[in-house]
Every structure is written in structure tokens, then in C-alpha cells.
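Re-running the complex after MR caught last week's input typo. The corrected sequence lines follow. Everything else is unchanged.
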Amino acid sequence: MVYRLEKSILVSVELQNQPGVPLRESLAELARLADTAKALVVGILSQKRPRPDLRHFIGKGKLAELQALVAARDANLVIFDAELSASQERNLENDLGVKVVDRTELILDIFAQHARSREGNLQVELAQSVFLLTRLSGQGIHMSRLGGGIGTRGPGETKLESDRRRIRKRISELNKEIEKVRKDRALRRDKRKKSQLPIAALVGYTNSGKSTLLNALTSAGVLVEDKLFATLDTTVRRLQLPGEQMVLITDTVGFIQKLPHQLVAAFRATLEEVTEADLLLHVVDLSHPNFEHQISAVYAVLEELGAVTKPIITIFNKIDCLDNKVPKELLLKYQPAVAISALEGKGL
Ligand SMILES: Nc1nc2c(ncn2[C@@H]2O[C@H](COP(=O)(O)OP(=O)(O)OP(=O)(O)O)[C@@H](O)[C@H]2O)c(=O)[nH]1
Ligand SMILES: [Mg+2]
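Corrected-run output:
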């Protein structure tokens, strides 16, 4: 799926008792995600409610407002900053008459657009297939019942059943392929371990400057972009420290709040670089208004990976964008911490 220049409306819902990122900030992030997916944002709608509506996620009144906005802006896509159930998405599409995607689909799409390596592509396809299967499982049998069976489809089997079977088969093929990739990776890691060089992994919120820092330290020539999820593939480089000590440093995929579960599971092979590292370099974009939320989001993913107990150095990046000095309390709170500008080569 490609959202190239689709006229889109963004919808964000703040649920009570789920304190998270303020509505304005999460809308800003959703807009950046939409932009990265090459969609054209033509409208924004938000709502606060105690809990999601079962049928449409948003309430009746909001739905009417959304219908009017879709018509007024001639939109052909609606993007929800939430995880919709299969039936909510279907109800919304029926009532709005345009395509509806949720946050998970949007992020999966960006990953698909940015995957370069075979490994990256396999992992994205796995995540997409698992997502598709959950969507199909939510559908009733009545949805796409077709007549008798042709070819592999047995008599009486519905199209839905055969679709599910096909996707399950593909998932198991992908899992096998990825298992091979994991083994290759483990072999390469063993080799690196034999070299006795300590491994430091760059981790952090997407767009915080991990690749810029790797380039600044090692002239790795990794792609740097003012886009979310510019990096999906792992790059490993040697770095000589001033005291002659050599270390290996790895750059990998960035994190985001509410990172779809399917992605973390599918990118296990890639993320193992993080879990196998000796030291984590946590790069934080200090110029971002919400950097402390981003720090928590990164810790949530590290927790999920079982990597929070590793030694972590917090690296406050982009200090060239600040008017003032980095507050001492901040460095203390997240110590050991340093303040740098990867772009200008300050503090390295
Ligand atoms: N002003 C300023 N911009 C920076 C600095 N470091 C990185 N950037 C910019 O931040 C944006 C993202 O940088 P990347 O290095 O691609 O960030 P990343 O963490 O690798 O991002 P993903 O791979 O997308 O997760 C780019 O536009 C960089 O030029 C810095 O120290 N100062
Ligand atoms: Mg990067």
C-alpha cells in the first residue's frame, strides 16, 4: 500500500485514564508519519473520550463531523492515531466511503517503503502478514463466501478460509527464512565476540540522530534523513577510542511510542543486535519538545526486549538547536549522560 499524495485526514483520540503524550504532540507526530508515508494531510480532527466507541472508535457526533470533513476536503484517506479493530475499520470505511488505516498500518507501510536489505524486507513482510491475518480473523465467515472450489480450494471452503490458509503458509515460510537470517547473524556476532571487541549499540527514538552520530564517529556513510524510520538495517563499524581501545558500534532501527507489537516481534533478528550489545548509547533529541516522553517510550521498548539492565549512556543530542545550556539536573537525572551535537561534531 502506498499513500503517495493521497489526500488524508488525521484523527487522534485522547482516552481518559490513559495518560500519554498530549494530544497536540501525538497529532504532530502522526502528521510526520503521514508525511513520511508520502500522504498529503488536508485535515485534522481530534476527540477526548472516556473509552473507544465499539463500532467506530469515535462517537456518533464526531463521526458526522468526520463525514463532513471528508466531503469538504475531498479526502480519500483517513488515518487514525490508534489501533482499530478489524470491525471498527470496516464500519468506518463503510460509513465514510473512503479508505481508513490505523497507526500500525501506517508504520508498517513506512517500514515497507524504507526496507532495503533482504532481511529488512522479510521482516516487514512477516509483520504485514501477521497484521493481515489478525484483520481476516476479525471478519465473519459470511464476508466473502464464494461458490464451489477450484484448484487448491476444497469444496465448500470460503475464499476467506483459503486466504487465511495462504497467509499462514506464507508466515511459516517467512519465519523459516528469518530463522536462517538469525543464525547467520548469530555466527557473525560470535566472530565479533571472538575478536574480543566490546560492542556498543546506538538506540533511541526515531529521528534522534543515531545515524548522524555513527557517521560523525566513524565516517560510516549511513543514510541520514529528516524522516522517521530512515534506518531499518543494521550497520556495524569499528571505532578507535583515544586510549587506543577499539570498540564496535552498531546503528539500527529507531523506536517510537506505541511501536506496533508485530514489528517488535518481526524485527527480532535485527533487534538482537541491541540485546547482545555490551553497552547502549541512548541518543535523545534534546530539541524535541517532548523528549522526556520519547525517553520513556525508548525504555518501554528496551524493557520489552529485556535490555534495560544493560549499562546505558544517555546522549543528549542536537544541543546546537538550544538557546541555553543543558540543565545540570537533566544530566544528573539520566547519568551517566553527555550533551553533544552530532551534526556539528560537538562533545564527541
Ligand atoms: N540540528 C541538529 N540536527 C541533527 C543533529 N543530529 C542529527 N540531526 C538531524 O536529525 C535528523 C535525523 O537524523 P538521523 O541521524 O537520520 O536520525 P536517526 O536517529 O538515525 O533516525 P532513524 O534512522 O529515522 O530512526 C536529520 O535531519 C539530521 O540532520 C544535531 O546534532 N543537530
Ligand atoms: Mg538512522
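None of the earlier attempt is carried over here. The beta strands are 7-15, 40-49, 77-80, 99-101, 199-204, 235-240, 246-251, 279-285, 312-317, 337-339. Residues 210-211, 230-231 surround magnesium ion (ligand 2) (CB under 6 Å).
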